[in-house]
Write a structure and sequence with these properties.
This protein has 197 residues and is mostly helical. The mean pLDDT is 88. It is elongated, with a radius of gyration of 19 Å. The protein has ten helices and no strands. It folds into two domains: 49 residues, Homeodomain-like (Arc Repressor Mutant, subunit A, Orthogonal Bundle), CATH 1.10.10.60; 139 residues, Tetracycline Repressor, domain 2 (Orthogonal Bundle), CATH 1.10.357. The longest helix is centred in the last third of the chain and has 22 residues.
């Protein structure tokens, strides 16, 4: 990729990110991106074949930032504490970047196939949890442990959609962070009970 093409893409991504942060995911269209960036719609489609490809690039940036945010947490000796710390980092990131996360979540609902670079970003992110999860459930066979990790990630990802909306904000008894912590720890306890049974 030429330096000029890379700088155009970087400028488009920065503008798209700003639009989503300020106005919301539904505001992101080729026309609005063109108006905000000063690049023609044709130029945008010259860089990204369609808006889904553009959104993929924005989402990969979001996943990368989430990974960096979660990596800031110091790894503890207590594996349960690590899992809870990473959950805190995940929830805090989603709440701070709710419009960008809403864009990412909705893209997953309609995407037919995720490109390899996108899948790699998700795998990298979920692998942060792996050592602590494996330490907690070392007696589970590797196949069951992997399945349990995947179910946990998919559950948290599904729950994250509620973090980006105000749907549950009116239920004053529910704190979004506490809701996620309760789900995580209930799930972890449930696996321990099933393992014994």
């Amino acid at each position: 990729m030429s330096e000029n093409k890379a700088s155009i893409r970087a400028e488009l991504l920065a503008t798209g990110r700003r639009l989503v942060e300020e106005k919301g995911a539904e505001f992101l269209t080729a026309r609005k991106l063109s108006e905000a960036s000063g690049f023609s719609v044709g130029m945008i489609y010259g860089q990204y074949s369609n808006m889904d490809k553009f959104i993929e690039a924005l989402n990969i940036e979001t996943l990368s930032e989430l990974y960096q945010s979660m990596r800031k947490y110091k790894t503890e000796r207590n594996a349960y504490k690590n899992l809870n710390n990473w959950l805190d980092a995940f929830v805090s990131f989603v709440l701070l970047n709710s419009n960008r996360w809403f864009l990412l979540y909705n893209y997953h609902l309609r995407a037919q196939e995720l490109p390899m670079k996108y899948k790699t970003a998700i795998i990298k992110l979920t692998r942060l949890w792996e050592p602590s999860f494996n330490a907690v459930y070392s007696r589970l066979n590797p196949r069951k442990r992997k399945l349990a990790r995947q179910v946990l990630w998919l559950s948290l990802f599904a729950l994250s959609s509620f973090l980006t909306t105000r749907t549950i904000d009116n239920l004053n008894m529910i704190n979004k962070k506490n809701l996620c912590k309760l789900m995580l720890n209930t799930y972890l306890a449930g696996i321990a009970v099933l393992r014994k049974g």
